[in-house]
């Protein structure tokens, strides 16, 4: 009797709950987004961190400019126009009539405050990484005009300004915050250990978004994120693994601005020999490897994706030619290169989906080509020691798994880091190459593009300090209620204003 | 592992191995478990040389090959993994690492824990207190977290993995040994030895340790299972054994992302873990019954009943 | 009795202090948080500034002394990543895990007592064998594997349960089930073993001879006497439950302290690691004292 009773209770509860789920789904204009990771904080100065940017950027906070995904050029946002008034100074005109979500008006003083808060050094600001060691000084000229002065000529300042989030001057200047107030179309309403929620901000200066409320949750397993969208528990998840992207109606792929590569340590034998470095490129079965990342990834010949200023469409990637690879290794051996020296292949756990498998596969292929490659998988903190200068003294010949994400429109965020002798990740040291890079960085317009292309060509053909792998693809699952498709910016932002409901 | 088996059996019945075998045969579950472990041991020792490199050989064109087909050879009967390598071959080769790590960790923690427990139980000096407090500390340290911290510090190599897994299990043996020693040292034969002038070391080694050993071995059998699962959890968190080395636990962890569309990648290693740990648990509970004079009649009467 | 509690408490405090010191120095060995907290392309100056801001540039022993000093004023440090008090972060997550753990342990102990007793009452029967096989299988399967398969079957294929998260009590079913597997499996074996021992003892034979009913004998007499080992094992399993909780919380997105502490060490958020350990260790020590007291209640022979 008792058991029967409890079964009935459970059954009723089940029915009640399933109808509850269905109900939640119909409550229109509210959406739920499931992210892979919990945002540790919501500090607006950390929007270049994927899980912070995907929540805040373009929703709660906005910048002066925004990068056009197709051309890589800066477009107006909170700034309406800009001009270079001398080598060091840019003059910025601000959009009139913009209000912060706390009611304060957005003016030159507020922008100067935001720039100062970011560059002042009083708090740890992740976005500063994009500026390197530059210093900026912002001076209001009038209410809606300000001058930004840099310590060296800065031809792409408007591009850089796309990472400066403009926030209310009531924000503490010396303390990180978790409740940012910006000018965006959504106002943050709560942030706890399970969700972030935001509601539409009615005082928004631009077009009113269709979505009224958005809730963000997080689950680390891709299969569970995919399942949540499938069952209607969530409406959108920005990244699922390729094996979960099985439904062409809901799963969309997008080129995500990430380029995977192996960095070759050019200072250590046998990797200091050009033939060996070429052989490394030739020994990989690129078509076979592609199977790990999905049919849509693009084979890479350079470290930036198409659409970034400086990308050379005509530059061809290395082909798979195992015979040639073996031949080059033999040739190097005959010339006295110690090809039997152990080469350590350093992978990083969880760097990208199937990254560990890719390393196992590549190690096996290089061994087939006659190279003594040994795989070591490291955790981030250990891996970084090999990624950045100063490199560990005791290292031998190393190949390093890496991924580069340049979504900022210009090759200046790539070339000096990888190829200049002072570059943080560089193993190249060639004064002539340095000079070429410096010339390119100071140039502007078509000259700049042409110089960058020449540098990528030289890096691919004559220097070979890296093994570009693929321009990666991300997969999103979008519930049937929504009309939205991911694009190259999806890894850094998901503008709710671009999401529409299907009726 | 076989060592544990035979040891427990021997301790269960010091006399007649035949009787033990007969009892084992009567308990069908335990008998099946013993046969499975026997086959597993043979496969682990003899398999890898036969299989050679096949377990590591890439086959990117046959990624996630479904199971139950002989088209690619018998090694592919259980399907292929995400890099197109035969799962059956990998199970056999992976058994070495899986069982080796677990065995080493269990033996290491049993010996260390046992010795420390003997000291802590028999001696009343200050270090007895220290040992107990340290055991308390490790017990209250969530073992997964401790494992992560140590692996981050030392790096995730196989030997470090063994150290970490052993470290987290030591207190179990320590506390059990100490409890038994506290009871044993009050018994007659110890007092007798003491009054005859035996040195403490001799009493502990000759009289007390042999009495504690059976209990420790039973715990070890269960712990073996715990360690395999703990190693698997570490792989789930990304800090278990690192490729190109692999264990069953790592195979389950790596295949978990494919459960929805290529279930076999993590199912077979999961099944292998389950069967192995299940067999060990079954045998250990059988051995406990055998060792208990109050319970032993059950196994023997089973024989009568079934006649 | 009181002196016993006092002695145990002082032991516990010594252990907690030792644990804190151990955690403090061990975590510092795992590497530099700035390389993980700052983006890969930040400059060396930015890293140095970060280290200075959070005191990581000081010698470790000095950092420890400062930590101890702050502890005296109940300041447990700031979470580097979450911009707020580390203890607040830990205390917010702890109840979530406690809820899971209490429900899972109570359920598995209760179930194990019933199932294990029934199995022991007819040793060697089909029921006994099935119980042994099923409970041990549950305890032998990797928990994250069971969790994901459970979601795929019950949430995706049959749409009976939500995939993950918290909210309605339906959200509890899968996490509790996964968390129960191991304690239940092991406890059933312990209950069964203890019951077999108790049922074979002379006083039960007496009871039987007196003509008491089977049920009465099992649940009235034998069970009471086999509770002690069950409580010991259940206590140990509860302390170990935090490991299962890590996996369950990770898979189901349950905002508990297990996942928090693992995330914190992965991201080298040291103050949070220390605070979570302090909270869980204190809970475990309190639990152990309670278990000792429970012994005294159940077994009048034990006196402290």
UniProtKB/TrEMBL annotation, chain A:
Domain named Solute-binding protein family: residues: 74-384
Signal peptide: 1-24
This protein's UniProt keywords: Signal
One Gene Ontology CC term in the entry: outer membrane-bounded periplasmic space
GO molecular function: peptide transmembrane transporter activity
SUPFAM superfamilies: Periplasmic binding protein-like II
Stated family: Belongs to the bacterial solute-binding protein 5 family.
Gene Ontology biological-process entries: peptide transport
InterPro entries assigned: Peptide/Ni-bd, SBP_5, SBP_5_dom
Protein name as catalogued: Peptide/nickel transport system substrate-binding protein
PANTHER family per UniProt: ABC TRANSPORTER SUBSTRATE-BINDING PROTEIN, PERIPLASMIC BINDING COMPONENT OF ABC TRANSPORTER
Organism: Phyllobacterium bourgognense
One Pfam family this sequence matches: SBP_bac_5
Localization: Periplasm
Automatic annotation (TrEMBL), chain B:
GO CC terms, sorted: plasma membrane
Keyword Transmembrane helix: yes
Record's subcellular location: Cell membrane
BP-aspect Gene Ontology terms: peptide transport; protein transport; transmembrane transport
Keywords: Cell membrane, Membrane, Peptide transport, Protein transport, Transmembrane, Transmembrane helix, Transport
SUPFAM superfamilies noted in UniProt: MetI-like
CDD domains cross-referenced by the UniProt entry: TM_PBP2 (cd06261)
Segments traversing the membrane: 29-52, 73-93, 99-122, 208-230, 262-283
Domain named ABC transmembrane type-1: residues: 95-284
Membrane topology: Multi-pass membrane protein
Membership in a protein family: Belongs to the binding-protein-dependent transport system permease family.
Protein name: Peptide/nickel transport system permease protein
TrEMBL record, chain C:
Molecular function terms, GO-annotated: dipeptide transmembrane transporter activity
Keyword Transmembrane: yes
GO CC, alphabetical: plasma membrane
Keywords in alphabetical order: Cell membrane, Membrane, Transmembrane, Transmembrane helix, Transport
Pfam families, sorted: BPD_transp_1 (PF00528)
InterPro entries linked to this entry: MetI-like (IPR000515), MetI-like_sf (IPR035906)
Localization: Cell membrane
SUPFAM superfamilies hit by this protein: MetI-like (SSF161098)
Location of the ABC transmembrane type-1 domain: 94-295
Primary site of residence: membrane
TM segment ranges: 12-31, 100-121, 133-157, 169-191, 277-298
Gene3D superfamilies for this protein: MetI-like
Membrane topology: Multi-pass membrane protein
Keyword field contains Transmembrane helix: yes
Domain of life of the source: Bacteria
Family the UniProt entry places it in: Belongs to the binding-protein-dependent transport system permease family.
Protein name per its UniProtKB record: Peptide/nickel transport system permease protein
């Amino acid at each position: 009797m008792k058991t029967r009773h409890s079964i009935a209770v459970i059954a009723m509860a089940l029915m009640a709950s399933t109808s509850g789920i269905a109900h939640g789904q119909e409550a229109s204009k509210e959406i739920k987004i499931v992210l892979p990771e919990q945002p540790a904080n919501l500090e607006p100065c950390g929007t270049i961190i994927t899980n912070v940017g995907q929540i805040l950027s373009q929703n709660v906070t906005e910048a002066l400019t925004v990068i056009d995904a197709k051309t890589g050029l800066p477009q107006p946002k909170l700034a309406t126009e800009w001009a270079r008034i001398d080598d060091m100074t840019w003059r910025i005109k601000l959009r009139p009539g913009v209000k912060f979500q706390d009611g304060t008006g957005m003016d030159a003083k507020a922008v100067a405050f935001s720039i100062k808060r970011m560059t002042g050094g009083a708090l740890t600001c992740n976005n500063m990484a994009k500026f390197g060691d530059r210093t900026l000084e912002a001076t209001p000229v009038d209410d809606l005009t300000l001058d930004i002065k840099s310590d060296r000529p800065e031809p792409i300042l408007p591009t850089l300004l796309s990472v400066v989030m403009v926030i209310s001057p009531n924000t503490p200047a010396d303390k990180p915050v978790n409740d940012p107030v910006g000018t965006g179309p959504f106002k943050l309403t709560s942030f706890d250990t399970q969700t972030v929620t935001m509601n539409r901000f009615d005082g928004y200066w631009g077009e009113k978004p269709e979505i009224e409320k958005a809730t963000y949750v997080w689950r680390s397993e891709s299969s569970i994120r995919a399942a949540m969208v499938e069952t209607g528990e969530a409406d959108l998840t920005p990244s699922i693994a390729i094996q979960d992207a099985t439904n062409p109606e809901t799963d969309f792929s997008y080129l995500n601005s990430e380029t995977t590569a192996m960095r070759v340590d050019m200072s250590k034998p046998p990797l200091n020999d050009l033939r060996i470095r070429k052989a490394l490129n030739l020994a990989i079965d690129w078509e076979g490897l592609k199977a790990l990342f999905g049919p849509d990834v693009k084979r890479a010949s350079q470290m930036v994706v198409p659409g970034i200023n400086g990308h050379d469409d005509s530059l061809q990637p290395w082909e798979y030619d195992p015979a040639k690879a073996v031949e080059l290794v033999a040739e190097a051996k005959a010339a006295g290169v110690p090809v039997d020296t152990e080469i350590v292949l350093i992978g990083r756990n969880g760097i990208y989906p199937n990254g560990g498998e890719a390393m196992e596969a590549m190690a096996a292929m290089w061994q087939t080509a006659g190279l003594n490659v040994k795989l070591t998988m490291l955790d981030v903190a250990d891996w970084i020691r090999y990624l950045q200068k100063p490199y560990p003294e005791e290292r031998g010949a190393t190949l390093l798994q890496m991924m580069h994400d340049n979504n900022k429109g210009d090759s200046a965020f790539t070339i000096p880091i990888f190829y200049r002798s002072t570059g943080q990740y560089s193993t190249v040291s060639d004064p002539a190459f340095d000079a070429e890079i410096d010339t390119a960085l100071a140039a502007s317009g078509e000259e700049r593009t042409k110089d960058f292309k020449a540098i990528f060509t030289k890096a691919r053909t004559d220097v070979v300090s890296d093994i570009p792998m693929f321009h990666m693809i991300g997969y999103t699952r979008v519930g049937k209620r929504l009309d939205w498709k991911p694009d190259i910016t999806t890894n850094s932002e998901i503008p709710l204003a671009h999401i529409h409901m299907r009726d | 592992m076989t060592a544990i088996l035979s040891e427990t059996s021997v301790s269960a019945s010091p006399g007649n191995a035949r009787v033990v075998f007969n009892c084992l045969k009567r308990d069908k579950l335990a008998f099946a478990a013993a046969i499975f472990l026997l086959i597993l041991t043979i496969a682990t020792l003899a398999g890898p040389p036969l299989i050679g490199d096949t377990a590591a050989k890439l086959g990117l064109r046959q990624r996630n090959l479904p199971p139950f087909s002989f088209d690619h050879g018998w090694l592919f009967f259980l399907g292929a993994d995400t890099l197109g390598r035969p799962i059956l071959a990998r199970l056999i080769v992976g058994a070495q690492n899986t069982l080796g790590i677990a065995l080493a960790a269990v033996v290491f923690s049993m010996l260390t824990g046992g010795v420390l427990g003997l000291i802590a139980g028999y001696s009343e000096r200050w270090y007895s207190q220290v040992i107990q407090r340290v055991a308390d500390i490790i017990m209250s340290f969530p073992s997964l977290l401790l494992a992560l911290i140590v692996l981050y510090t030392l790096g995730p190599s196989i030997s470090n993995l063994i150290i970490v897994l052993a470290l987290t299990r030591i207190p179990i043996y320590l506390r059990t040994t100490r409890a038994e020693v506290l009871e044993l040292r009050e018994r007659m034969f110890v007092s007798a030895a003491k009054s005859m002038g035996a040195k403490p070391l001799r009493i502990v080694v000759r009289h007390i340790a042999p009495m504690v050993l059976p209990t420790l071995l039973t715990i070890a059998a269960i712990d073996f299972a715990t360690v395999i699962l703990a190693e698997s959890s570490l792989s789930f968190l990304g800090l278990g054994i690192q490729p190109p080395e692999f264990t069953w636990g790592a195979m389950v962890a790596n295949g978990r992302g494919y459960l929805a569309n290529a279930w076999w990648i993590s199912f077979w290693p999961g099944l292998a873990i389950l069967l192995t740990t299940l067999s060990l648990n079954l045998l250990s509970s059988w051995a406990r019954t055998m060792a208990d004079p109050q319970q032993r009649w059950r196994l023997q009467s089973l024989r009568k009943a079934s006649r | 009795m009181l002196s016993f509690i006092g002695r145990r408490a002082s032991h516990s405090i010594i252990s907690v202090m030792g644990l804190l010191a151990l955690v403090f120095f061990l975590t510092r060995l795992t590497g530099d948080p700035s390389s993980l907290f700052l983006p890969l392309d930040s400059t060396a100056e930015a890293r140095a500034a970060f280290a200075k801001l959070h005191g990581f540039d000081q010698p470790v022993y000095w950092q420890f002394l400062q930590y101890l000093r702050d502890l005296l004023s109940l300041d447990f440090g700031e979470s580097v990543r979450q911009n707020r008090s580390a203890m607040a972060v830990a205390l917010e997550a702890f109840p979530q895990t406690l809820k899971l753990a209490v429900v899972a342990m109570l359920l598995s102990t209760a179930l194990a007592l019933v199932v294990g007793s029934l199995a022991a009452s007819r040793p060697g029967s089909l029921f006994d064998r099935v119980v042994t096989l099923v409970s041990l299988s549950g305890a032998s399967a990797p928990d994250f594997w069971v969790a994901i398969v459970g979601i795929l079957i019950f949430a995706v294929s049959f749409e009976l349960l939500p995939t993950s998260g918290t909210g309605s009590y339906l959200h509890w079913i899968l996490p509790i089930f996964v968390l129960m597997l191991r304690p239940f499996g092991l406890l059933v074996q312990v209950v069964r073993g203890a019951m077999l021992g108790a049922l074979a003892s002379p006083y039960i034979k007496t009871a039987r001879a007196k003509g008491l009913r089977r049920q009465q004998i099992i649940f009235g007499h034998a069970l009471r006497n086999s509770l002690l080992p069950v409580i010991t094992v259940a206590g140990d399993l509860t302390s170990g439950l935090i490991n299962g909780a890590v996996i369950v919380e990770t898979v189901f997105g349950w905002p508990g302290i297990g996942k928090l502490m693992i995330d914190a060490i992965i991201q080298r958020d040291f103050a949070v690691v220390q605070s979570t350990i302090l909270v869980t260790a204190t809970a475990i020590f309190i639990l152990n004292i309670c278990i000792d007291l429970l012994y005294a209640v159940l077994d009048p022979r034990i006196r402290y």
